[in-house]
Amino acid sequence: MIKEIFFAGGCFWGTAHLFSLVGGVEKAEAGYANSIVENPTYKMVCTGETNAAETVKVVYDDSVIGLTDLISLYFRSIDPLALNRQGNDVGTQYRTGIYYTDPADAEVIEAMIAMLQRRHTQPLAIEWGQLKNFYPAEEYHQDYLVKNPDGYCHVNPALFKEARTLGRTAANDSNELRSRLTPLQWEVTQHGATERPFTNEYDDEFRKGIYVDICDGTPLFLSTDKYNSGCGWPAFTRPIDEALLNERPDHSFGRIRTEVKSSSSGAHLGHVFPDGPAEEGGLRYCINSAALRFIPAEKMEEEGYGKYLPLIK
Length: 313
Description:
By secondary structure, this protein is an alpha+beta fold. It is built from nine helices and 17 strands. Helix content is 21%, strand content 26%. It has helices spanning 12-20, 42-46, 67-76, 106-117, 144-147, 157-163, 175-180, 183-191, 297-300, and strands at residues 2-9, 25-33, 53-61, 85-86, 89-90, 96-100, 127-130, 134-136, 209-213, 219-222, 226-227, 235-236, 245-250, 257-262, 268-273, 284-287, 292-296.
């Protein structure tokens, strides 16, 4: 599906060039977002009187590159704590922001913003919300760094090299699977997003039952092993069988963690940490509700999971 998202990241020359390099991005257009003046010019925007933000409209094929991947790249291209400033540029037109036109993207963006905020003690300066308007910038601003290779750019050049490696391999875009998942479930399982803590579906779910892979129904965790860790997501001391999970190092966002994926579907589930209850083995499987489907004990037999009933205490 062809989608669009809008990133304000300081001077739009570098931001536009960065996203133009990503596989699956069909267009990265420099422009002005959320202006209080119709059809503003660059000169008008520079006065600050339009309240417009230099913004890049990113049109992308989400079967090739996910919204989560684009936002992750965006986060690394900016100083998220800087207010109305990026690099050498200062002014409200250089503020940072993520603007959407598809309401389904809101939950994903909020989850990503929350995830980044947890890594900082100071409040983020990134605004986000539904796009009010967008006006393309003058032609000489389009593909500026292609036309002017030595032109000013606040984006770390190393990111340009990384951007070229993204989205080259199409994601598992099964139409059948996609039709069954919500946008958040898709982004979590297929693109590694993290949902909001404490307000997700199963954080406070403690009925007896089984938790299965939302993608293919593989049984993963039992209510017997679920506990209230206070982390804001469903936490388990162990899976039903370790062979049901794949674990791999995750160095994203400057942290060293262990990602947990479903062995059967390849879906991203969450992470495992060594801070669980010592008497239960010391592990905490912190799993996104969006990656799971809970089946209460009284319905397990009719849904084909009856053989696991003796394991539930």
